Amino acid sequence: MAVAITIDQVSSMRSLLAVPGHRPDRFNRAYASGADGVMIDLEDAVAPEEKDDARSNVAAWLQTHRSAIIRINDTTTRWHLDDVRILQPYQCIVVLPKASDSNEISNLRMKLNAESYIVPLIETARGVVESWSICQQPMVARVIFGNVDFGLQLGVSPTERLAMFYARSMLPTVSAAAGLAPPIDGLTTAIRDEKTLKDDLDHAARLGFGGKLCLHPNQVATTNSTFTPSIEDIKWARSVIDMAKEESATVLNGEVVGKPVIERARLLIARAERTVDQVI
Q1: Cβ atoms within 10 A of the Cβ of 1, count?
Q2: pLDDT digits (tens, 9 = 90+) for 179-211
Q3: What SS3 state is found at 182?
Q4: Which are the contacts of 81, defined by CB distance < 8 A and separation ≥ 6?
């Protein structure tokens, strides 16, 4: 029996690789990709006529592995309740697409296994506006920003950074205020364009995101690298911790080092040391 997924594992995920639920032949390959997490998708990647097969595949996987990350269909669809029913016996990370308010989260929480967690996918304008109340709900582990559907609602390309700036600034701030791990950024749909992927990752990291949703295994290594502290960062953090005293300021390489800087150094070291023990 697989070990249950922990909140620390969810919080430390740098890469979350999506795999279609109707393609069980890809499940093991996804888990072997090096991604910190694998999300088996019952939603957008699965056509309506394949939903039943995808749901059966997820049920079979859970019967063997007992836990997984599953993206279900949103609450407005006819598939939502059937998705929830197959997950109820198991400890799962449930990704809820188009999460729009705290009531959706509360209602879903009551239908799931008590040891499950919810990862709201914020991809609507209402979801962005309501993100503070969403992040405060029990069982919410972390949030994902859905740039593709959000861009569709705004009437812009999902690659349009200016239009996405408000949402991408809001979610890291709200997550921090709610005590959650930094959010996971949305998709880079150009799956073979390494430069675009790197640009998107650097942009997300600068805004305070801590991971990325990946469409293809070839996006995983660059994603993990971006959200892993560099050797230079670790050297700086250790120098700060070695030299500074918690309650007093000092100067290191011309930089004033006070308590907030020391705390940042400690958090960076902790982030570097924390790894996902197993692919989830």
Answers
A1: 7
A2: 999 999 999 999 999 999 999 999 999 999 999
A3: coil
A4: none
Query: Looking at the structure, do residues 90 and 138 belong to the same domain, yes or no?
Result: yes
Q: Specify the 3-state DSSP secondary structure of 38.
A: strand
Q: How far apart are CA 67 and CA 46, in angstroms?
A: 21
Prediction pTM value: 0.88
Q: Domain boundary residue among 228, 243, 258?
A: 228
What domain range is 192 assigned to?
Answer: 7-228
Q: Which amino acid is at 62?
A: L
Q: Are residues 86 and 173 in the same domain?
A: yes
Q: Which long-range contacts (CB under 8 A, 24 or more apart) does 202-208 make?
A: 202/226, 203/161, 204/168, 207/168, 207/169, 207/172, 208/172, 208/173, 208/176, 208/182
Spatial separation of the C-alpha atoms in residues 223 and 54, rounded to whole Å:
27
Per-residue tokens: 1: 């029996």
What are the φ and ψ backbone dihedral angles of 46, each rounded to 5 degrees? -120, 125
Same domain, 168 and 262: no
Residues 138, 213 within the same domain: yes
pLDDT of amino acid 1: 41
Across the chain, which has 280 residues, the per-10-residue mean pLDDT values are: 78 96 96 96 97 97 91 97 96 97 97 96 98 97 98 96 96 97 97 96 97 97 91 72 62 64 71 68
- For residues 210 and 252, state if they share a domain: no
CATH, residue 70: 3.20.20.60
Give domain status of residue 2, yes or no: no
Q: Which letter does DSSP use for residue 13 in this model?
A: -
